[in-house]
Amino acid sequence: MRTSTVLLALPALSTAQQFPFVDQVKAFFGQASASISSAIPEASIPPIPNPIAAGAAAIAAANVQRLTLDNHERVLRPGAATASPGVEEWMIFVTGGNKTCFGNCKGVEQTFNESVALISASPSPPNLALLDCETDGVLCNAWTVTIPSILHLQIPQPLADQSKPSTTIRYIAVNRTSATAPEFAALHLQEKYKETQPYDGFFHPFSGPLAIAGALIPFGYLMWGIAKVPSWAIMIGISFFSRTFMGRRFGPQAGRDGQAPAAAAPAAPAQ
């Protein structure tokens, strides 16, 4: 029965295909389907995270302290005095973002995170910290650091009389494109940090003249503020200052009233 019904419908279908109305209906539904498809965006497939990078970031988050302007004095404070004073070793990774590192520190920061597991597995691991100059520019300017880099600190514990020897600091440059996790780890495991001479200059963050005078952080604010000023504003200021100076130095000598000085009276004729 169903077969006979289909057979009877075949001539009707073949006849209907000869009418343009059927074609118009087909075209209408085709356009509607295309409009709906374009209105519904394709489901974006989220990228699969790198398990190595994710694991390294988790280990770094658990072992690396975030150094900021507010907590750096408390975090880097040496331990209590002991019978046999020792030295606290610190490795501070200095990084930045789009403005301070032009977006080129993301890869080397991941490499540093991968080295944290190697460093932490050593018999006497150092204290690890991260300083982000994108969010803590004042501290970075006060310490005059470069991005990216490693600050290696040796902070001595106070003696029995509460006197504290000077802190040793080394500024170790890092190649943002070719640095590897074993190279970071070798700074501690193989004491490669000793290949860099300690810094003992004017801007020493612990024993320099500015630090002793308590002016290191104000200096950091000053340099941070200057860095925030657009270059065009600095050029306008220099141009205005130079024109004012040149005008006063080489311009016409005006009197007190702003008028040119009167000409001298002619000499009286001789009698």
Provide the helix percentage.
40-55%
CATH class of the domain at 51-227: Alpha Beta
**What do the pLDDT scores average to?**
78
In terms of DSSP E residues, the strand content is 5-15%
Largest sheet: 5 strands, mixed
Q: In angstroms, what separates the terminal alpha carbons?
A: 154 Å
Q: How many DSSP H or I helices?
A: 10
* CATH fold-type name of the domain at 51-227: Glutaredoxin
Provide the succession of SSEs. Answer: HHHEHEHEHEEHHHH
Care to describe what's here?
By secondary structure, the protein is an alpha/beta fold. It has a domain at 51-227: 3-Layer(aba) Sandwich (Glutaredoxin). It contains ten helices and five strands, in the order H-H-H-E-H-E-H-E-H-E-E-H-H-H-H. It has a five-stranded mixed β-sheet with strand order 1-3-2-4-5. Strand 2 (87-95), helix 5 and strand 3 (127-132) form a beta-alpha-beta unit. Helix 3 packs across helix 5, helix 5 packs across helix 7 and helix 6 crosses helix 9. The chain is flat, with a radius of gyration of 37 Å. The model is unreliable at 1-19 (pLDDT under 50). Keywords: Membrane, Signal, Transmembrane, Transmembrane helix. Residues 1-16 form the signal peptide. Residues 260-271 have a biased composition (Low complexity).
Which SSEs are present, and which pair or pack?
Layout: H1 2-16, H2 20-39, H3 51-63, E1 64-67, H4 72-75, E2 87-95, H5 106-120, E3 127-132, H6 137-143, E4 149-156, E5 168-173, H7 181-189, H8 209-213, H9 216-228, H10 231-250
Parallel strand pairs: 1-3, 2-3
Antiparallel strand pairs: 2-4, 4-5
Helix pairs in contact: 3-5, 5-7, 6-9
